Amino acid sequence: MSSRRLGTGVEPLVHEICPTAAELELRKRYLEFDAEDERRLRQLHDLVAGSAEPVIEAFYRHLLSFPETSAFFSGPDEVEHVKRAQVRYFQRLTRGPHDLSYAEDRLRIGAVHERVGLEVKYYLGSYCRYLRELLRPLATAPLDSDDRQATFDSLLKVVFLDIGLAIDAYVLRRERELQAAISELETFNYSVSHDLRAPLRAIIGFSEALLEDSGEELDEEARAHLRFIAQGGRRMSQLVEALLTLSRISRAEMIAQPVSISETAAAVAEPLMTANHRSVELRIQPGIWTTGDARLVSVLLQNLLGNAFKFTSRHQTALIEVGLQQREGEPVVYVRDDGAGFDMANADRLFGVFQRLHPESEFEGTGTGLATAMRIVRRHGGRIWAEGALDRGATLYFTLPDLRVDE
Questions:
Q1: Of 256, 258, 255, nearest to 406 (Cα)?
Q2: Distance between CA 368 and CA 247 in Å, rounded?
Q3: Is 0.70 surpassed by the pTM of this model?
Q4: Bridging pattern class, strands 279-284 and 317-327
Q5: Helix or strand or coil: residue 260?
């Protein structure tokens, strides 16, 4: 495809991601890029007026030495056309002004690069070559050492501003692709789970009806088969409901607000303690707070504390703790028990859907609790992991935004 046609169709993307004037000024302030930088760059532009073409020539000799990058060009004519366009662009990079028109041009080039597959790692070399080649005339320019250093600092600022704009097109496209993939997966998960409910109800219902109405006419083996079918259908129904719950967790709208992890844990643990007929010591550190969705944080603790009670159920006494500690300078919440534990060699399986490290005959469940917990923690931008040992208990750790202890 001719390079003259590569820019067609990118305008909607450019208009979508182009910053406003206020946003562009904010980016400049982050870089401490001001009017003095603009002035020094214009002065540099005058000093190196004849350097743009040698810079581009040197860069393309380097670029075309790699088969994977030279493959982006159909022939010498296209290379020459792109060179001329890049000469004009690099001249503008020092000449300025660095306004919305400049930002649109930068985003337009980035969108074209993204469209043809010229990834960021390939064209970062142009910036390195650009800086290297400009340093030569800058080193001999009639400037004192302070002005020379200040000009170099201004050059670095505009290069970082330029790189930031260049990758915006890549970031937006990748975000869209990721969101589309997640949405398709969640829709498939929900649709399959929802569509399975009716046939499962039919399997369970007719099996039980047949057993009830005609059970006396069947031998014991046939009745056992029917009971097995009904039991399998109920198990499948539980798994479907678990998938639907996981899908709802992934799709639920989040409302960020201060949430007391300590109070939420106590509320979640109360019915678990009431239904428990063992001696369980529950220790919840007071005053643990986070910022997150209150409902999802509650579901997170329901899964973690539910597991703690479940996996200590074979012990006559149990200790379950919820607290906050610092690990490598980061506040981390933990839920600890002294129950069945697990082999750390299998730790990577813990958070998978339908993954079980203990037989269902020992501990019932669908195998989606920790997968749900991970989904919730990740939706909050946090991490979750586990440590444990067989018959020595387990500790689940997680991070959430703004974790703190308010006494």
A1: 258
A2: 11
A3: no
A4: parallel
A5: strand
Taking the alpha carbons of 202, 194, 303, 261 in that order, is the dihedral positive or negative? negative
Q: How many CB atoms lie within 10 A of CB 299?
A: 22
Residue 33 exposed, middle or buried by CB count within 10 Å (0-12, 13-18, 19+): buried
DSSP 186-202: HHHHHHHHHHHHHHHHH
Burial class of 403 by CB neighbour count within 10 A (0 to 12, 13 to 18, 19+): buried
Phi and psi of 373, rounded to 5°?
-60, -45
Q: Give per-residue pLDDT as tens, 57-109.
A: 877 887 788 887 777 777 788 778 777 777 777 788 888 899 888 888 887 77
Contact between 369 and 350 under an 8 Å Cβ cutoff? The reply is no
Q: Specify the 3-state DSSP secondary structure of 254.
A: coil
User: How many angstroms separate the CA atoms of 86 and 88, rounded?
Assistant: 5
